[in-house]
Design goal:
The complex is a heterodimer of chains A (about 90) and B (about 400). With about 90 residues, chain A is an all-alpha fold. Chain A contains 2 helices and no strands. Chain A has 2 domains: about 45 residues; about 45 residues, no CATH class. The longest helix of chain A is centred in the N-terminal third of the chain and has 44 residues.
Chain lengths: ~90, ~400
């Protein structure tokens, strides 16, 4: 078997895996759309402003309603020490 | 003619593959490093894109305007009397007072988000029970009843009971009864929430009567949000006015490449490519020189050798790209971005079950290609040209 054919088979195998992931993604998308209605109701009825991803610090729990200065407000010369501060950019108001 | 050209390219591809297989340990290590870099970049891109996407979808329903009182650069309680001052502003449909704060559980080291409001005054409140997995929302006259998020239930270990207590500021205990639990599907919003009546929240935090923490303002015409926000700022100086577009904008930039973690991903990729490019451009090994010389003696042209090098680069970078991006998708969707969780959630005790489903648009794929495959192809151009122009006699003679 010539090398190009072996390589094509390997590529086809990878693309088949990607195809299976795509099909699974479509069914997951349907399930996600069903929960989206619940999320919309919760946001609307509770007036939520932020995603509950990082709950360790006020400014990463509610970045949309926090000051960019919030991480440094605890005491003079305070440094930002929460790990999630590395992942989240400060809000731009 | 086209048939001959295709056959020639296929033969060159065969030769390039054999050449890569001959140096399989080196090729495999380059492929693995390359795929890992792409995996890192693509995972970051997918996580941030999925979170931004989710925020964009759900935060379209956040209150049109949120008011908070500021004093000495910090947020403080806002008087309920401010509601009356807003009465004169035309276009405001409703103002709903709310108390929200944090309760730090010193035993579990968990931070709960407590919200107190009369839910009946909020839009869509009649449908809120659809977001609950069990129970119901308490009515405004039911005191001491709360609805909790999934992680709160787990943290307080409320499997066999439905009551718990929190400390007031004077260290007296306030008891609560769980009347409902949010559905796990809403975890990304309600994971750490404890919803109660306004009076209960006021009692828990000892906030004086006539004060709340913020006011949610609903306007009749969403096109007038900015105008009404400006009028509120003029009527109530010292009040921070946050509009829905501002909140949505925050989430479009908060997960960005400029964050510390994003920069580390980019710098890692950049460092890997600099090392790779330096290695490629720094010179040919004696084996490579000999191989090219033999090919030239056998009648290969410079363009053929360039084509071999091009195919080698395309195979390595293309394969690394497919493998890296597939692995990144599996990591984000099936393993909930477990490698990033320590940075994404840090020291958080309450952690939501993230169900991330990135939408892979052509633009996202092109962005990753632009950061990875294209620099690799560019980095191999000069060494390919250098290798193709090696004089046969000098290589063999040396």
């Amino acid at each position: 078997m010539r090398p190009a054919l072996v390589f094509s088979l390997l590529l086809c195998l990878l693309l088949a895996l990607d195809g299976a992931l795509f099909v699974d993604g479509l069914s997951r998308r349907k399930a996600e759309d069903a929960t989206l209605a619940q999320l919309e109701v919760a946001t609307s009825a509770l007036g939520l402003s932020d995603l509950a991803v990082a709950t360790e610090a006020r400014y990463t729990r509610h970045p949309a309603v926090s000051d960019p200065m919030a991480p440094f407000m605890d005491h003079p010369g305070a440094i930002e020490h929460f790990p999630t501060g590395a992942f989240w950019l400060p809000p731009q108001h | 003619m086209a048939q001959t050209n295709l056959e020639k390219q296929l033969n060159i591809l065969d030769y390039a593959l054999s050449s890569l297989w001959r140096r399989r340990m080196k090729s495999l290590s380059v492929l693995l490093v390359f795929a890992s870099v792409i995996f890192l970049l693509a995972s970051f891109q997918m996580v941030t894109q999925a979170l931004s996407d989710k925020a964009k979808q759900v935060l379209a329903y956040t209150p049109e305007i949120t008011l908070q009182k500021m004093s000495a650069g910090r947020q403080e309680a806002i008087p309920l009397a401010y509601k009356d001052k807003l009465a004169g502003i035309f276009g405001i449909r409703r103002v709903v007072p709310r108390i929200w704060g944090y309760y730090f559980d010193e035993v579990l080291l968990a931070n709960y988000t407590v919200m107190g409001m009369n839910v009946d005054e909020m839009p869509e409140s009649a449908r809120l029970d659809t977001a609950l997995a069990s129970g119901r929302m308490p009515t405004p006259d039911e005191q001491g009843r709360v609805v909790i998020g999934h992680s709160v239930k787990k943290a307080l270990d409320l499997e066999g009971r439905n009551t718990f207590s929190f400390f007031r500021p004077n260290l007296s205990l306030k008891a609560f009864t769980v009347s409902g639990e949010f559905s796990q599907g809403t975890d990304i919003l309600t994971n750490d929430l404890i919803i109660m009546n306004l009076a209960d929240a006021r009692d828990l935090y000892a906030i004086p009567a006539g004060m709340v923490t913020d006011l949610c303002v609903y306007v009749a015409n969403p096109k007038e949000i900015d105008t009404i926000a400006r009028k509120i700022s003029e009527a109530l100086p010292g009040v921070r006015v946050l509009t829905r577009p501002q909140i949505q904008k925050t989430y479009q930039v908060v997960f960005g490449w400029r964050s510390g973690f994003g920069s580390i991903c980019l710098l890692t990729a950049l460092a890997a490519f600099v090392i790779l490019a330096w290695d490629k451009a720094s010179g040919l090994s004696p084996e490579e020189r000999r191989e090219i010389a033999i090919l030239k003696v056998l009648g290969w042209e410079t363009s053929d050798i360039l084509a071999v090098r091009f195919w080698e680069s395309v195979i390595v970078s293309g394969l690394a790209c497919v493998v890296g991006m597939t692995a990144a998708y599996i990591h984000v969707v099936y393993f909930a971005a477990s490698l990033f969780r320590p940075v994404l959630m840090g020291w958080s005790v309450l952690r939501p079950d993230l169900h991330l489903l990135p939408r892979m648009a052509a633009g996202d794929i092109l962005l990753i290609l632009a950061f990875t495959v294209i620099p690799y192809l560019a980095a191999t151009v000069i060494p390919a040209w250098r290798s193709a122009t090696v004089p046969a006699d000098s290589a063999l003679g040396g």
